[in-house]
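Help!! Second protein's tokens look totally different from the first
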Amino acid sequence: MQARVFVGGDKASVGKSSVCLGLLGCLLKEYQPHELGYIKPVTQSTADTLIAKFCHSKGISYRHIGPVVFYKGFTREFLSGATVHTTESLISDIQRAVDEIAYGKRVVVIDGVGYPSVGSICGISNAVVAKSTKSSVLLVGKSGVGDAIDSYNLCATYFLAHQVPVIGAVFNKFQSTGFYSLSNCKPSIERWFEAQPPDNNNQQQKCYGSLPLFEGFGEENEACSTNSKPVKGEVRSVGLSEHEGKAAVEWAELFAQHVNVGAIVKDAVGSHTQ
């Protein structure tokens, strides 16, 4: 059965796309490239991303732009009726794009945008996208303990309110030393998850891992907002530089050390068979 993993987070730049990259890098050790897919169905940017370049270089089917792009002024045009789009047509476009990428694949990674309710003004929040694409949600959390878990609960509750299965989380960007270091925070986070009962979907949410801060990417590996409408048919460079290739390999190795990728895939499948 196909696994569809929707990667969400509590804010922009928490590391959603980096986690998607880590997942795919690890999955390549167990699957062939043609068995994997990546898509960011709703985005705020039309720029090339490291994960798009990675997928292109590895032969993984991908779509990193759209079909929905929240360019500057999109929501005002939508609300005023100055666009041909409706909530229903946007959802249909998203479903079609995800199904096209997912065809014949064993694992599909779906990259969320911003925080859970982004897009709700147009009726296409992350929760609506995850539900309409029959995906299981993996949340990317911030470092720390109290704020990290509280933020996770807020995000998970939003998805659960839309009847979307949340399998758990990966926490990201921990410092190597100090009170909020990975070694100091990880046991408390895991202890909290182990103490939780199944949620209202009878899903036992899990902490699949906690990641140290990784600076190998240089510039932030998350798409930023765009001020212009996407240009239909625009061709972009998708070359992976030597530095980017090395960083992607290092990140995948680090990811494999700290995150249980096999359990994520297994639980994503299981959450839709209960």
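Here's the second one for comparison:
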Amino acid sequence: GGGGGGGGGSEEPQSSSSDHGGSGLGCGRLVFYAALTRGGGGKAGSYSSDSPPKLLWNVHGVEIGTQLHSLAVNSLQRGTEQGWFVSSTNDKNSSFADESSSSSSSSQITFHNGNALLVEDPYYTSHEETDSYSAAASIQSLLSTTNLLFAYSTVFETNAIQQFNPELQAMILSPKWSRTLASLCSNGCVAITTDRALNPDDGWRLLDRMDVENPSVWGSVGYISVLEK
């Protein structure tokens, strides 16, 4: 599985950028939300290009399922046709989130289809072995520069040795996820997971938790952790 993310911004012009990634983002709703509400996105012509957002968001969505990835890309294409996004390249998986076509003055949305893990995943099969490994390498490189990571981890595997951490009062993600993300992400990366917390033994420190509405599973808990390694 793979994911999506977001971060904060302000209204003053500035050229700094921030990379946000997510895993298991399905059809990309969180990616669009982050880019349009936090990354300075908006309908083409809705604000002056002379005043770009202070903090630009490069928002990436990773999805392991081909069908869900296709839905996200199709939504991006429709948004481009309606003026919400501007195509950045000939790559249909990527667009800018406002009227500017320059990466120096606008946030960017990119969708990736592949496996975020370092090992083979029984839930992910590809008939194109070369493309599969290439996609995985690209996603893992992306994670190394991600500042804020979101993973919809409600159905991700828990730790087989210690499913529940009494100190955190939370189910703990398996090493397949917790340890892999700790090895790929940079120090200081903030990760948000749902219904499973990242393991402190892997360098993740829990900052906060939040009960949120999630009708499909009768409510969820969001865990916010920072990587300290």
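Reply: Different proteins will give different token patterns, so don't panic. The CA atoms of residues 74 and 82 lie 12 Å apart.
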